[in-house]
Amino acid sequence: MNTTQLRRRIVHVVYSFSAGGLENVIVQLINRLPADQFEHVVMALTTISDFKNRITQPGVRFIELEKQPGHAVPLYPRIYKLLREIKPDVVHTCNLAALEVTPLAWLARVPLRIHAEHGWDSHDPKGMSKKYRRVRKLYRPFVSHYVAVSKDLFRYLADGVGIPQCRRTLIANGVDTDAFRPADAMGVGLSGCPFSAAEHWIIGTVGRMQTVKNQPMLARVFVRLINEHPEARYRMRLVMVGDGPLKKEVEQILTRGGLQDLAWLPGTRSDVADVLNQLRCFVLPSQAEGTSCTLQEAMSCRLPVVATAVGGTPEVVQHGRNGQLVPADDEAAMAEAIWTVFLDESMALAQGFAARKTVVDHFGLQAMVDQYRPIFLGSLAA
User: Fold this and answer.
1) Rounded to an integer, what distance in angstroms lies between the CA atom of residue 296 and that of residue 302?
2) Is residue 159 located within the same domain as residue 230?
3) Is 346 left (phi over 0), alpha (psi -120 to 50) or beta?
4) Co-location of 268 and 216 in the same domain
5) Are 143 and 249 within one domain?
6) Are residue 146 and residue 58 in the same domain, yes or no?
7) Are the CB atoms for 157 and 168 separated by under 8 Å?
8) pLDDT score of 350
9) Domain with 96 in it: what CATH number?
């Protein structure tokens, strides 16, 4: 720890800082770690969005490097210079895109270099790429300690990258169960939403519209449900919150199916808790996940969930008890699971209550923060 400062200075390094589960974890860590022990810098290799406004801790510095497509080598001198200027006690890199900063942090004499794996890269949704394994092994000597947010990522670090037990910690993402709680009353309404929870049965999802999140599958499933069960047209609606490269494809699927008026795609929203409390069923169609923050948030709002059995999701959802699990990319299975929730209100209610209990008992936000704290203090790092 630097003798000139009383608090440990952490530089959080991400590819971009915009709405997303990984970024939400950083927001919560910054807001909830003791302010008298830690100060924070957020460094984005590309850009920083208004998502930074969710940080309530004063004095946080934001640095966006505006990296162009391709390798970050041209930015290396600037990153090294910044690290020497900032003099952090900890550099906290997140996911593969930020991992290449760790040798620079080592070279800049940063004492502690923590790397967190939050989920699979969109080009390697199942962690099978030999190239990416080689890259992770190449940077392995420069990382002091690893964090994985799910058991499959934890095992991957051991089996695929060769990280020993003493250099890795499993910390599931946490959710603020006070902010994400069941609504006091149904049918209050949501700003801009053309549907009403009191009148409609709304299916929904929240997340970046990118390949690994697979929102087009949910759009196709919605079209399938309405075609197979025309009576559902009067009540069933679809809400998909988020933005990204797949949004246009989702809109085209709904338009071709003639259902664009039965769906609402508002883009990114800051009132996710209010959105969730308008839903009757939350759906996560991902091809790969670490531990999905939005899935946990939906469960905390006491929603029945239908999710693909990928990554860390089966660690959160127990099929038939607190939700429904279906195989990835299986549209028929997902449609059947959603239809079951639609038809069986008592089952949906019971699974919603069980979902809330699961999150409160095992995925509380403060528990997550308390697990990161000793790692940032260096207590667990080699």
Assistant:
1) 10
2) no
3) alpha
4) yes
5) no
6) yes
7) yes
8) 98
9) 3.40.50.2000
Q: What is the mean pLDDT of the segment spanning 182-187?
A: 70
pTM of full prediction above 0.90: no
Q: Quick one: average pLDDT of 33-59?
A: 96
What b-and-e string marks burial along 222-259, b requiring 16 or more CB atoms within 10 Å of the CB?
A: bbbbbeeeeebeeebbbbbbbbbebbeebeebbeebeb
Q: How many CA atoms lie within 13 A of 339 on its CB side?
A: 19
**Does residue 150 fall inside a structural domain?**
yes
Residue 382, pLDDT score: 45
Task: Report the amino acid identity of residue 142.
Answer: F
- Closest Cα to residue 298, out of 181, 200, 171? 181
Q: For the chain, give me the number of helices (H) and strands (E)? A: 14, 13
Give the model confidence (pLDDT) of 275-317 as tens digits: 999 999 999 999 989 889 999 999 999 999 999 999 899 999 9
Q: Does one domain contain both 160 and 214? A: no
Q: In 109-143, which positions are buried (b, 16+ CB within 10 angstroms) versus exposed (e)?
A: ebbbbbbbbbbbeeebbebebeebbeebeebbebb
User: 331-343 and 345-362 are packed helices; what angle lies between their axes, rounded to 10 degrees?
Assistant: 110
CB atoms closer than 10 angstroms to residue 73: 8
Identity of the amino acid at 321 = R
What pLDDT is recorded for position 1? 45
Same domain, 232 and 331: yes
Residue 21 lies in a domain: yes
Residue with token string 């209010």: 274
The answer as to whether 184 is a domain residue is: no
Same domain, 260 and 151: no
- How much helix, strand and coil, in percent to the nearest 5, is found in the chain? 45, 20, 40
**199 in helix, strand or coil?**
coil
Domain of 60, in residue numbers: 8-174+364-376
Task: Say whether both 222 and 262 belong to one domain.
Answer: yes
- The answer to whether 251 and 218 are in contact (CB under 8 A) is no
